[in-house]
Amino acid sequence: MNFRANNPLWNHGSERCRDLRETRKRLREMEGEPEKWILMVTARTPTNIAVIKYWGKRDETLILPINDSISVTLDPNHLCTTTTVSVSPSFDRDRMWLNGKEISLQGGRFQSCLREIRARAQDLEDKKKGIKIKKEDWQKLHLHIASYNNFPTAAGLASSAAGLACLVFSLAKLMNLKEDNSQLSAIARQGSGSACRSLYGGFVKWIMGKEDDGSDSLAVQLADEKHWDELVIIIAVVSARQKETSSTSGMHDSVETSALIQHRAKEVVPKRIVQMEDAIQNRDFPSFARLACTDSNQFHAVCLDTYPPIFYMNDTSHRIISCVEKWNRAEGTPQVAYTFDAGPNAVMIARDRKTASLLLQRLLYNFPPQSDTNLDSYIIGDKSILEDAGIKDMKDVEALTPPPEVKDNILPTQKSKGDVSYFICTRPGGGPVVLSDETQALLDPLTGLPK
Amino acid sequence: MGSESEKWILMVTARTPTNIAVIKYWGKRDETLILPINDSISVTLDPSHLCTTTTVSVSPSFHQDRMWLNGKEISLEGGRFQSCLREIRGRAQDVEDKKKGINIKKEDWQKLHLHIASYNNFPTAAGLASSAAGLACLVFSLAKLMNLKEDNSQLSAIARQGSGSACRSLYGGFVKWVMGKEDNGSDSFAVQLADEKHWDELVIIIGVVSARQKETSSTSGMRDTVETSALIQHRAKEVVPKRIVQMEDAIQNRDFPSFARLACTDSNQFHAVCLDTYPPIFYMNDTSHRIISCVEKWNRAEVTPQVAYTFDAGPNAVMIARNRKTAALLLQRLLYNFPPESDTDVANYIIGDKSILKDAGIKDMKDVEALTPPPEVKDNIPPTQKSKGDVNYFICTRPGGGPVVLSDETQALLDPITGLPK
User: Fold this and answer.
1) Is the domain defined by B10-196+405-411 classed in CATH 3.30.230.10?
2) Dist CA B291 CA B338 (whole Å)
């Protein structure tokens, strides 16, 4: 390996360059051909959906929010990011691949995370491979990172939250950090606000914190994924006809121009946070539903109160809400909660499996697929809900009758086929895990490049 | 009186405009008296294009109060009609028509019955606030018939009890509905901020959007909002009072950028508060949003806003352009983005003041199809992506005058001999 030619640092007669030479000398003194060793960790992280929303920062660089938020972590079996991080003296720069495509790590958010993690790196010894890394070595070693989302990025399903959380979690494992998941969440937070909530499973709260340096702005677990495991989550991926406003610029505009957002942040959300924590603790579904729906609606209200106004929900989103609201009110007690993030997708939370299958019938009745669709690709994730709903193929969908609470049969011509691209059935799920099975690694253990 | 006096009929016909709020009324502090939780400001629309015409008549030969709306008989039993009738009868004066030999003493009015016919020259289903114009016209014409001494502000306090927004139709130009403090509503009425000549270069274009579903009524909607929205009191107490002052200044000074900013943000905040209601209320739809995007894009591409937009409790867009030239440019953009179905006659697609169409250089559908993308739109929208027919039609109008009596008897809606609709 020709360090002189390939290493730009070699041309600087600086102390840093000297340190690098000393480090490499020490590493070469290890057994075998130490310059070629590669250390790898693979982890899998879930995504999450906020039920009390984060929208608006008080600090753009540290990503500190203007209010607390609470989320539900989704089952990583259905939606997750898998990330392999690797380190080797043979890597000459930090590189990252997302879904097979190389991306830049130069942005402030990636740099913040890398910096924060490297600063907390510890000594690491892999006796089997004969690798010994001192904590100060990490500053000079480069990383190769490959990440993969098992759901489409364009679907508006918060891939950046899962992705950043996975990056932070896997690097923390690689560099042997002592910090717990809450402390790691404070690092992930600097990459993406909602990412900090993906450091835990179940129900998670992102505490806004008071300190200017953000040291007390982190995620804590309210309850794990077993606490309320009869909940079923159905996501409707709605066809988005136009490019959406990014969350970052959108919430920035809201803070600057909305006359309602400070009242929301200071007066409304604090009360809802307390009520939502109680609802989760007590498995009080009616309260949970009321709080989730009204907070989602208020978030979108604040977007509308922004100048220029931001419209994340569209007519299909509204029709889904109407469908759920009609059923909830017909039953007397809410059956389904809904919530929408910065896009038209609906996340519906049913109180149990039976309710979920009744919901799915209503959704398929109101939002049938195009006639030539394979039902198997229209409902993905946990397909057993489809069985519970008694639906095997398109004939069963076409045979669906109007639900009791709908007074008039919607003419088939009025139902807009294809308004929903597909549905995902899932449930609350667990937090980040290390995957010890090497076949799941996304990088080749010998080259350090994507498989 | 002369013989056969029981058969005499006294009639008055009046015409009243409708209005569009630019600082919105949404939420009551008293449901019976219709007292709002904040002030509101509106622009009165030109009655040549949008108006209600009402003929009211009285005769000893009438057995009961009756009313016909657009030719169909309707009930006057509802609380709002009864409030208006009661309040006006309570203030009726002596009336003498020497020519016809009629002499009515003020106390007679309580025992005399009325026939009323009303007609809107725009479709009721179009969500164009026909009840505001209708109630205002009823009150105004009855006040003329019964010779009330009250001025239009005092009449607006009566109209208010029929329909909140009706009170603002008692004046032309720019009108403010003062919310008042009193519990009995005696100080809650409309005043004129400026007449229709004050800022007459403004041009108003209304996009009547196809409504796919039945909308939530304003009355129940605003009640749900007051009961369930966590944001509405903050709006009413903190936000609107400041905007009212700023809007009055903007109107006074003909400051279009401020006018536009206030109108757009207040319309959006009204809809935000509807979304913050439980269950949520969606008045605007995707077409409404696309109209807003079209206007916002253009406004931001120009140094200063060209067009203000506002939406009421429905998907229709009311756009206010700063002058005729801007209105023509706006119309080109609207027709480019929202063309009619291919077989439409352009003369039915743009109604009201059609001269704007001429200014825009558009004579027929060929001219519409030949329209090119505006400069601020980077990509040409393929014709297949434009949804034809999302807008039913456009109305071009302007700020206009207040209620007037129509002295031409041929415009009366009731037969002067039978007292029944013509």
Assistant:
1) yes
2) 9
